[in-house]
Amino acid sequence: MNALLVDDSRLARTELRHLLRAFPEVTVVGEARHAEEARTQLRELQPDVLFLDIHMPGETGFELLASLETAPHVIFTTAYDEYALRAFEVNALDYLLKPIQENRLAAALAKARAKLTAPVPALAPAAEPEPEEAAPTPLTEQDQVFVKDGERCWFVRLADIRLFEINGSYTQIYFEQHRPLIPRTLQHLEQRLDNRVFFRANRQQIINLKWVESIEPWFSNTLKIKLRGGPEVEVSRQQSVRFREMLSL
Fold first, then answer.
1. What average pLDDT does range 89-102 have in this prediction?
2. Which positions ≥6 away from 72 have C-beta within 8 Å?
3. Shared-domain flag, residues 177 and 93
């Protein structure tokens, strides 16, 4: 996998190059300081993946992409989280916030690898059944997820989310003082979340165990859990049994 690094900061390029040494399948074929230099490098080197900063002197990373007839797979690298929505609108593979964490870089490269190694679909008979939908990719607590609610959007680490709660046909997310709604079911989220960190307390709620402040016995041998920053969550009888078994010595 050949990569081109585009960033006006020499230090940022050096740090990213250093991080990429941990991934032997990646070869850094070039670096560029601004959009014009990047265009030349793209024509000459034909990289598979473009690590692209957004704020650069002259043209922004978005303006560079808009000027290209074709582009490699793009992974944005930036210190600003407010452009996440726009990044995914231009089909970026990922959006890495500086300072870049190695586990986030690994996840981004996994996406690039999957794109680059995906087989070209062959012509199939008309009666060929459609393939089953792939299982959702599991997430770690250090992964960042893009959340949009109306006109507002966030890029938030899963470790900072203390509660997922059903709200009508949506799921409400609790982090900091925010309570955005996302069009996802708890069942879908449960399949993607690390069950060592996120626990299904009942039919309506999934809690982050690392945000538990206190636990007390409740009615009918159930438990009540208080999360730091609130709220209190009543654990169902069946899940109370599982909670005790899971966290006992």
1. 86
2. 4, 42, 46, 47, 48, 49, 50
3. no
